[in-house]
Amino acid sequence: MYKLKRILASSIKYAALLLGAFIALLPIVVILFASLKTKTEYAATSPLTPPVNWLNWANYTKAFINGNMLTGFVNTAFILLISIIGATLTGSMIAYILNRFKFKGKSLMLGAFLLATLIPGVTTQVSTFQIINKLELFNTPWAAILLYLGTDIIAVYIFLQFLDSIAVALDESAMLDGASYLTIYWRIILPLLKPAIVTVIIIKGVNIYNDFYTPFLYMPKTSLQVISTALFKFKGPYGSQWEVISAGIIIAIIPTLIAFLSLQKYIYNGFAQGSVK
Amino acid sequence: MLKFSNLSYSKQRLAIIVAFSFIPLALLITFAYLPVINMFKYSFSDWNGYSKRLEYVGFENYIKIFTDPEYFSVFKVSLYYFVATFVQMGLALYFASILSFQTWFKNFFKGVLFFPSLMNGVAIGFIFLFFFKPDGTLDTLLQAVGLGSYVKLWLGNPEIINISLAGTSIWRYMGFNFIVFLGAISSISSDLYEAADIDGANRWHQFRSIILPSIKRILQLNLILAISGAVSAFDIPYIMTGGSNGSETFVIQTLDVAFKYSKVGLASAMAVILLLIVIAVTLLQRLLIRGEED
Q1: Are residues A226 and A183 in the same domain?
Q2: pLDDT in tens, B204-238
Q3: Do A48 and A76 have their domain in common?
């Protein structure tokens, strides 16, 4: 009786997992199918039918070239690189002084960063837009870069958490050797923060790569489009050509998939850490 | 020559505190606090976003939002996303619990369930346009399993459009909650399970008396964040429908009012209301959690 119950429970478990995996994969798999079909094939077959020729790349070349996706990748890479380096440096710098020094206004500073987490970015866009406009950054990549840097509070938290676990004795022994605070930060703290930096890079990277709203609103110029906005533009000219749109979708997902498969372990840890405030 | 390392440590300290906090604070003030202050200011004006002149109109914008049903009714759409969050949490918790025990192909299932939450929002929007379109994935699937009579205009019918969109939102965000829960559950000491096994507790008992209490805080946090998530829903409906057929959310409306109709004053008042809701909810949550700890 007991054994029967166990078997039943276990079959329910695997049925649920398989159903879950099916629902997670099906919407993506049909897009992969569509992206490899020719126009006539797409029109004649159902979405669930696999393509005849698995090596039909015609839609991919069309999407990549006509959809300006190369520009999108170049712009995304540029913005990603600068924002991530900047966020890592500024985040670790402020965390360093907040964690290591006692000074007037410290709790005020910490409070200011904390309070800012209460403000959801999407509510303040209307007036943030005016600031970007006044700084004459509208339609430049710096609009996005500054916004990605400026709103980064998660990074500060992650660095603060990690700094707690780095012994102050290390700083002190370096000071006995005559190292300046700058040397301590650069030579001791920053290298030891590596796991935290990886976490920040992943969380930040995923957010920036997937963000649609910031580039859409602040950099509408075609030459400045990123992957998200380049893909969004497919809605117009290719509205009914789903085989081309599908290829564009897959092109946009591939970098995420590669990053996920190669960094799985760090990504799981990073996301679990980033969410615990 | 003056070298930084020749300064006394107290001078160095001062220099480094100022130097290291300058940029982060400047960014924080410019892009977090200044917009909020300006937003309150604009919300009492009739500004259109570009003219030099700005006239203060008192509470007129706020009165308009609260009295004109056109503006306030969009909150009804939030209810769909709010309900969806409970489904999302439930699923995430279920999958996290079963995958925290021995399972075949554990890493495969973990990866597949989590991957959607890493995907590009625009790509997800398009994938689900294809999923819900007439003769798209869902219709074909229903027909294939003999449920063809349930085929509907998933994105064309105002009665069900928000259910379709909220479903997309579950698909997108479930994996994130799942991985957070999984992390929390895996930090529970295995001794507890062993002790429970010896006591003859089944999986359900273990879930109720070991897993649930240990992740209660994170569950509460997520559930209450769900409210602010629901009122600020934007990406999915904007990319998929642009807010047509009764799928307009408060944020889509706010941005349209500001950038399409150039009513920055009115839009700011809407944003202030949204901000106040989110802050009230967050504070409420902090109070509730603190109250329980005492």
Answers
A1: yes
A2: 888 888 888 878 877 877 777 777 778 888 889 99
A3: no
The tokens describing A149, both together, are 């840097």
**Secondary structure class of B234 (helix, strand, coil):** coil
d(CA B158, CA B170): 19
Q: CATH number of the domain that A230 lies in?
A: 1.10.3720.10
pLDDT in tens, B97-125: 889 888 888 889 999 999 999 999 999 99
For Cα atoms B163, B166, B168, give the angle at the middle one, nearest 5 degrees. 110
CA distance B76 to B64: 18
Is the CB of A123 less than 8 angstroms away from the CB of B274?
Answer: yes
ipTM comes to 0.89
| Chain B contact set for A123 (CB, 8 A) | 39, 232, 251, 254, 271, 274-275, 278
pTM: 0.88
Q: From CA A90, how far away is CA B25, in angstroms rounded?
A: 10
Any chain B CB within 8 A of the CB of A257?
Answer: yes
Maximum Cα–Cα distance across chain A: 77
Which domain covers residue A210, as residue numbers?
69-275
CB pairs under 8 A between A and B: 251
Measured from the Cβ of residue B69, the count of other Cβ atoms closer than 10 Å reads: 8
Nearest to B35 by CA among A108, A84, A146, A158: A146
Token pair for residue B116?
A: 């959607």
Query: In this structure, are residues A95 and A156 in contact, taking their beta carbons and an 8 Å threshold?
Result: yes
3-class state of residue B56 by DSSP = strand
Q: Which two tokens stand for residue A157?
A: 């938290």
Structural domain contains residue A62: no
Is A61 contained in some domain?
no
How many CB atoms are closer than 10 A to CB B205?
A: 12
- Find tokens 């993506």 and name the residue: A28
**Distance of alpha carbon A244 from alpha carbon B126, whole angstroms:** 12
Closest Cβ opposite residue A127 in set B91, B179, B268: B268
Residues pairing with B56 in the sheet: B45
Residue A146 three-state SS:
helix
Please name the amino acid found at residue A51: P
Q: Of B226, B199, B196, nearest to B214 (Cα)?
A: B196
Amino acid at B246: G
Q: Does the beta-carbon distance from B103 to A182 stay under 8 Å?
A: no
Tell me the CA end-to-end span of chain B in Å, nearest whole number: 58
Which residues, at least 6 apart from B71, have a Cβ–Cβ distance to it below 8 Å? B64, B65, B253, B270
- Give the one of A30, A122, A150 whose C-beta lies nearest to B130's C-beta: A30
